Amino acid sequence: MSKMIKSEELDKLFDDGEENVLQYFDLDNVRRPGLEQQKVSISLPSWMIDSLDEEAKRIGVTRQAIIKTWLDEKLVDKQMASSV
Question: How far is CA 58 from each of CA 11, 21, 32, 44, 45, rounded to the nearest angstrom?
């Protein structure tokens, strides 16, 4: 259970670095807006899955991790290109 504290007090404790401020947060209900997970189902040809698995194994991550990493890279590149 988290302790109650005013935001000004929390700011001061954090800025002073004198105390672990995490005790003032309800970490069981913490959310990261925009980063909530959603499931997506996608059908891919076998050769593509095999290639994903090979690359994932080569770098020591899961298939899901390699897909998420590559999608993130592509979306960031697209975002950077459109902001120029």
Answer: 45, 40, 31, 20, 20
